[in-house]
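BUG: 3D viewer hangs when loading the predicted structure for this chain

Environment: internal workstation, default settings.
Expected: structure renders.
Actual: progress bar stalls at 90%.

Input used:
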Amino acid sequence: MAQAALKQVIRTALDEAVDWKRISYLLHLSRALDELEETRLVPEKKLHYQFSARGHDMAQIVLGSLLTDRHDAVCGYYRSRPLLLSLGVDPADALGSAMGRAGGYSDGRDIGVTFNYPNPQGPSALPMSGGVGTQYTPAAGWAQSIRYYGEVLGEPGYERSIAVACGGDGSVASNGFWSALTIATTQNLPMLFYIEDNGFGISVPSSMQTPGGNIAANLSAWRNLRILQGDGCDPAETARLMQQAVNEVRCERSPVLLRLSVPRLQGHSFQDTQAYKSEDVVRSEWARDPLPRLRNHIVPAVLSEEEWEETKLHAMQTAEAARIEAESRPIAAPESVTRHVYFEGEMPVVGGLQGHGALLPATTETAQGEGQRISMAAAIRRTLEHELSVNKRVALFGEDIGRKGGVHAVTLGLQQRFGAERVFDTSLSEEGIVGRAVGMALAGLMPVPEIQFRKYADPATEQINDCGTIRWRTNNRFAAPMVLRMPGGFLKTGDPWHSQTNEVAFIHQPGWKVAVPSNATDAVGLLRTALRGNDPVIFFEHRAMLDHVWARRPYAGDDYALPFGQANLTRHGDKITLVTWGAMVHRCEEAVEGISADVIDLRTLMPWDRQSVLASVRRTRRCLIVHEDLGTAGFGAEISAVVAEDAFMYLEAPVSRLTMPDIPSPHQRALLDWAVPSVAKIRAKVETLLQF
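Structure tokens produced before the viewer hung:
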């Protein structure tokens, strides 16, 4: 009897802390929006992607109602609309975005179920992605930024802030989930993992995602992780567990995983007939519908029968009004679709240094050009050191970059000077490195993640792609500027794993800028521009040039910055134009000794200085493009196409390329020397073209 009385006291206390009237309204609203889409908008072909949240909705709304801190952030997935409604998203934005209308989440650029909600004065919904599991590591990055703002920057107001990642049971098999789990538990971050387990990943049962179909049970021995689980259809239990989970993260400043069992009452999407479920399974799921359970829980204790019906009617009216408003919205002007791929002078609502109030020193395009010549590695290190000293929002991280100083020694000594909170090692997960950086960048920091070798970026491809498109697909509501440092290319030998260049892959990722310095001066200028900029940048550090004698230059100065898209004419002549970058610049210079030739070091490949190239070719009437990457679909093909299209009438010889053959980088030195464009091969190609 005493135990029953205690449970009632606890239940009463929880009920008083939860606004059940608002939750019931939002639950009815979510159902009304689902029904409008299913019965009208999809059949009328006004909407093409529809994911019902029935069954998941009540628990999400309870969670959203508990996210009250200004710096809270949540990253959900395609079934998270009820959560967004609870944060304050306009239902007309929700429907309008689903219909691809102007305004809303993306101005019609993205599918309407990939939500975002910038809210500088309250909890934000970070930009969601269409990829399963991609929400976890950015949320971990946001959680780390919460600690960073409080402990490193000493800013008040972050003492109870948390980050939340929501995902279905299918997502727990993803790299992103495990990477974020490692980050949160090794760093003891204020992060909540909320797993909505409906038993199916589309048609695949949970037992195929994790042994036994219960991720909470499997993680019971995971260190530094509090595990909670229960029934997401029971209002009282849902409220109790949600409050416990959120409060533990807020108070203990450590991660919690909450798994709630919920039914997915409709198919994975509108087109999914659920033929893979038996009738018994479908009946059992509908028997767990949280809507009637909520009614039984709060009527008449909180709402009268009349009030319940009035709430339902009000929600239906709101949904219909939202539909009318959404359908009245125009389609965005088609020509506007090319805007906001890169920063255009207008700050996003959330993300980036300047958008979050950072004040940066002035720069100059004039290099000092005096003093001792230093290696490119030393120049990069010195630039990073200075930017760390003048901007406390800069943070460096990656595998082995801390005490070891990086496998290329570029970050040597930086952790000792700036501390392990600002220069730190990470677990061996490129997905985690880049995804974490995304969350930190969204929070207004300047993350400088390092991928040890170009080839190692492949596991992070999804995060790299998603990061580059954030500004565009949210129509400048969010942006995630960062500098992704990436060594690559041959050294004394090559191999298929450490010597890849393949810069063209990043040029084909919209939203990223790509820098490929060939020497210490350019490395300083381009890196400083990137570190103070508003776009994500791939900063490619060629292994052969980090300590190459030719690449050594005097330190260009603490204020030196180079604009992107401005090539360097390293040699001037009138017989032929050589276009190149990275390690091939000095080889091209040697190859044209005694020949009147322009040698153009592009320095950046996105954007690239096509005007300088075209002006030179129109004057010399011959063009040779030299690069280390493979020939087929290499970036030289793009340059060649532009020259052929815009300077064809000036040419006295075919536009030509000299590249590696279409093979991985070979290891044996003799094989490597044969494959990579050499001084002798470049000169021979030049002489052939001069004979036309």
